[in-house]
Design brief:
globular, binds pyridoxal-5'-phosphate
Length: about 375
């Protein structure tokens, strides 16, 4: 039996009737943009996270740009961001007029640390984007203690926790993506910004609505970036499942450990004090590229997500100085490999994937 890299169908299958009813409710009402479903979802997600405000937006990339602009980031400012992350974490910075400054990560947690951020700080640093990579929260309280506002990119970390707080409640602002394969994924594009700060929440809301409060007068150049009613109605059905799904992801990680995978490859390491919600299960091995091909041939989903880190992407070259050195990032880019992960992944699937890794490395 093939084991897919991720599974967007099986976890939601038991919820089909509830989802159908939620979609029908929206169609019956005929309100598709900025209606009661978005309002209710924003309240419910805020309550889940333990923050005062959630603002729905169109996707996780817009969420980052809008969060930065809400903070006042603009031309002349620098924003520190890891190079070992999805492209959008950095892509979201230039539209604000600010400059991305790439920092390194810890080789084991694969996340930024106070030390890697400190090395990238300058007097022009206006914010840090802390990515909770692969569902493992970055050490945000310690990074915030450096004295720079932190925008938590929690796109991959819905359902994770750190030091008793939810991922998404750790930074000055946090951003989510509800892209379908995410831990909390809708059936299209969607995103959100979370914050405890009344002023930042209001700024984010105005920025996502053409820089307006009423579409009559316009205070600034903004964006047309909204979560829609259909996606919000679906997300309201899925949100109550998030903790159970996150627990399922941790159980899947435990199945891999019990199957002996750690004797073959380096397993992901949680940040101290974190309860991760493994979005992707990313192992490390010298022969990762070779393993990727062999696992694929054996029907086991495997992918190196960030083989070319951001500081080596052509589109970002204008913001990369020739002497930039990010050794842990370069090493991880070469050695990381995502293998199957989903909330329902059982011991049999973990055994099968582990056996395929063993066979590939023995070849
Ligand atoms: C770390 C990270 N940041 C930002 C994003 C952007 O989210 P979206 O695809 O919803 O724009 C993603 C996912 O796609 C992501 O993984």
């Amino acid at each position: 039996m093939p084991v897919p890299l991720f599974d967007t169908v099986s976890p939601v299958a038991p919820l089909r009737a509830e989802i159908d009813a939620a979609v029908a409710g929206v169609l019956d009402r005929g309100v598709y943009i900025l209606g009661p479903e978005v309002e209710a979802f924003e309240r419910e997600l805020a309550a889940y996270l333990g923050v005062k405000h959630v603002v729905g937006v169109a996707n996780g990339t817009d969420a980052l740009t809008i969060a930065l602009q809400a903070l006042g980031v603009g031309p002349g400012d620098e924003v520190v961001v890891p190079s070992f992350t999805f492209y959008a974490s950095a892509e979201a910075i230039p539209p604000t007029g600010a400059t991305p400054v790439f920092c390194d990560v810890d080789p084991e947690t694969m996340n930024i640390t106070p030390a890697t951020v400190r090395a990238a700080l300058t007097p022009r640093t206006r914010a840090v984007i802390a990515v909770d990579l692969f569902g493992n929260p970055a050490p945000i309280p310690e990074i915030a203690a450096l004295g720079v506002p932190v925008v938590e990119d929690a796109a991959q970390a819905a359902g994770a926790r750190l030091g008793g707080r939810a991922a998404g409640a750790l930074g000055t602002l946090a951003t989510f993506s509800f892209f379908p394969s995410k831990n909390l994924g809708c059936f299209g594009d969607g995103g959100a910004i979370a914050t405890d700060d009344d002023v930042l929440a209001e700024a984010a809301r105005v920025l996502g609505f053409h820089g307006s409060r009423d579409k009559v007068t316009y205070e600034r150049i903004g964006w047309n970036s909204r979560l829609d009613e259909l996606q919000a109605a679906i997300l309201r059905v899925l949100l109550p499942q998030l903790d159970e799904w996150a627990a399922g992801r941790r159980a899947a990680a435990a199945h891999y450990a019990d199957a002996g995978l750690g004797e073959l490859v380096a397993l992901p390491v949680a940040t101290a004090g974190a309860i991760p919600a493994w979005h992707l299960f990313v192992v490390r091995h010298e022969r990762a590229a070779e393993l990727e091909t062999a696992l694929g041939a054996a029907g086991i989903g495997a992918r190196g997500y960030y083989r070319t880190p951001l500081h080596r992407q052509a589109a970002l070259a204008p913001w990369v100085s020739a002497d930039l050195s990010l050794p842990a990032t370069d090493e991880l880019a070469r050695t990381h490999l995502a293998i199957p992960m989903n909330p329902l992944l059982d011991r049999a699937a973990a055994d099968q994937a582990t056996a395929a890794v063993r066979a590939a490395l023995a070849a």
